[in-house]
Write a structure and sequence with these properties.
There is one protein chain. The chain is of the alpha/beta class. The protein has 10 helices and 9 strands. One of its GO terms (molecular function) is acyltransferase activity.
Length: about 270
Amino acid sequence: MSVRDFLKNLLVSKETEAIVDKIPKPVGSFGYDPWGYNTDAVKIALSVMRPIYEDYFRVEAFGLENIPANGRLLVIANHSGQLPFDGSLVGYAMATSPHTPRVVRVMVERWFPTIPFVGNIFNEMGAVLGDPINCGKMLRNEEAIVVFPEGVRGSGKTWDKRYKLQRFGLGFMHLAMTENTPIIPVGIVGCEETMPTPFHLKRLARLFGMPYLPVTTPIPLPAKVRLYFGEPMMFEGPVSSEDDVAVKVERVKDEINKLIQRGLQERSGWFE
């Protein structure tokens, strides 16, 4: 028996198996798609994430009805929390949505696949390298993709910059316009408090080739997380200029900021 079969038998409930099996996601005869997604690995990942999502972070998701049932889609969210829990929580929420459950592909930083074994595991769970060519091919395959345009500027934010959106890259808007893809803006509230970081150890980070090395809690704090999925936004191409793209990116950024502010107003504390 393989390690994957052992983990599947040990961890995956019939309920989780049924959730994944009813999601329309074509894979080959060996259970993989062209980017390494594996159905059994996703079932194991959702089983591991379930207590983290439901019990530890006590996630509430709003606006899941805004997600189209099928077709290409870019899910654009704010990034925070030092570790990539936010992408996993968005992916879990969409895969288990009571409206239109969908498998999502999360774009990850180029640094993560350099960690031994991590790259393959991430690929099997649906994550892919944050590369525009890769992303364009996946959209033409009608995939739903989560992108964090702040990149490490967002995930590695220090405490003094919490809930202040950092500079967005323009790549996602080029893809939305050239691939005729709707955008779902997402505001994430709570991940900023999971690993409060006063400063980074920059010299050590450079020594180990890491994008940042935070001085923070040894494990994420159980802050309550809220996910706000906004209404679809469409931006028609072709791309006329970088200035025009930047203006459209600011419109998405404004929508995400509105969703974040809503979440901050609706919560009564970090853990509630």
